[in-house]
Amino acid sequence: MASDAGRGQSLGGLTKEELHALVKQHWRGNFNGLVGLEFLDGGEGFCRLRLPVRPEILQPWGTVHGGAVATLLDVTGGVGAHLSYPRGSRLLTLEMKINFIGTQGEGALLSEGALLHRGRRTTVWQMKAVDEAGGRLRAFATATYMVIEGGPEGFPG
After folding, report:
1. Is the pTM of this model over 0.90?
2. Neighbouring-strand partners of residue 114
3. CATH code of the domain occupying 16-148
4. Is 63 helix (H, G, I), strand (E, B) or coil?
């Protein structure tokens, strides 16, 4: 789904290790960290995250809550979008369409996002979530993010 463009290169002068540390720092104490998202990889035009299944994100029937899956997909596209624009740009979700395909009760979900359109004011992304153990598709989404130039320094993008 994602292209190889930008993989293995430093982003905005950041090494992959620095990028991982920066994302982890930004997620500490906020919703992304609370849900348990883990940044795996990302760069211009792509992003990969992981969501370990734990009791706090299950719904009463023992499967991952749709809100946690939606968060995983939205953040995958959002982080990828941030990494695809100049430092200091802010991106906000304008809309997202999700199709839930299957349930997940244990293990972890892996997500991957790919850039579909990179414009001056909006960017469109496609994301999917699969079962880490078997690669079975659990959900996919498309999302549009609004690009706001001149935001605060910090998070790359």
Report:
1. no
2. 46, 126
3. 3.10.129.10
4. coil
